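[job 4471] stage=fold_predict status=RUNNING
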Amino acid sequence: MKQETVLEAERRRLKNEVEKLESKSNTLSAQIPAMQSMFDSLSSAVAQNDGSTKPEDNEIWQPVLSIVGDSGRKTREEQECLEDLKLSLESHGLKFDQRVLNAFHTSLKTTESSPLVTLAGVSGTGKSELPRRYAEAMGMNFLNVAVQPRWDSPQDLFGFYDYLERRFRPTDLTRALIQMDTFGAENGRGWNPPEAYEHQRLPNQLLLVLLDEMNLARIEYYFSEFLSRLETRRGIVSENPANRRLAEISLDVGGRRSGQPPMQLFVNKNVLFVGTMNEDETTQALSDKVIDRANVLRFGSPNSITPVPASQRKRQVMEAQPRLTMKTWASWCKSADDLAEEDRTKLLEWIGELRKATDRVNRPFAYRVAHSMLEYAANYPGKVDRRLDWVIADQIEQKILPKLMGLNPKDSTVQRAFGTVYRILDQVGDDVLKSKMEACCKDDYFQWSGIDRSEM
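[job 4471] inference complete, writing structure tokens
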């Protein structure tokens, strides 16, 4: 009897608790419409506040690249520009073999299939200086972007919407890319520039972007998505807005709750990307995804560390070069279809041998890499007697050797794969590259350390 009394008391207590909670629930439910109305009002106020900001006060429209007037000098030929580059480097006491300069220039012309050029290797070999002097000699705009170890998303590259200040915080890269955008404030792109901004745009010029020490952070985190967008340009008709949207970058310039549509940014082929990599315990290695979409030029330990004496430098005041136009640059760039059939056949024979060799060691490559090798050959500058020889040797160094890093050269299967590479290098007469490869195979871990062709 006593137990029944206790249970009944507990039942009444729980019933009262349930009634209290139901009453509280009803009260809160009744407040939802009012709270929703308040939220909508605040969202509207945010949108109005964003919209009231004058375009000229928005950081995104502050130009980064200077407007340079026409120097009046005639347009130069491609070979003339390369000669100016060599003079400029010598003037600054920098030594680069002509093959290295040709390889760098050719790699920048093959952005159709390899939108990133990577300069890796020993610190202090001029990896950062080469792109800067190249842009200067060619008449290109130049932007240095210092990659930070904390970068872990595309926002670090392009900027973010500050909800406290209710404004977009762009990076210098974003502001430069806006200046270079070839479609500008076309309808439906979410642009709201000030009236005078049209005079700040440079869509007909070239911009070289240097991602300095790009592997201080993991590249896949902050650059991989953007790299895919750059690659998507191959399969679109850029003049078609709907088609172009596949390759555009969306910038949340108004905040997700402001009602303002994202701003669309298209990075055309008038923007070139170069990344430098120092390799030590503080840096990240390149993934196969990045290697397949890049040309990797690896600078080895220099054969001589003796500085060029000031008396031997060809010191001269380099005149400001006329701006290289996108039209002129496009006329220099060729497609793989421009190759002579005889050259194409020979290259495909070598590429087929290399593909079988990399397949054996589970480091395969597919059509993308093969196509980029053909495109590289089509764009190699000048009339060089051993043009195809240098092309395939360059591509072995830039595309194949980075994929073989980490393999055990003492393994019989790996030895057969390396034997294929050696045989091709014997055919093209690149004894220097072959000797350097053999030196990197002495241990049980293949670590390609690059090569310095100067003074050889």
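[job 4471] summary: The chain is about 45% helix and 10% strand.
[job 4471] exit 0
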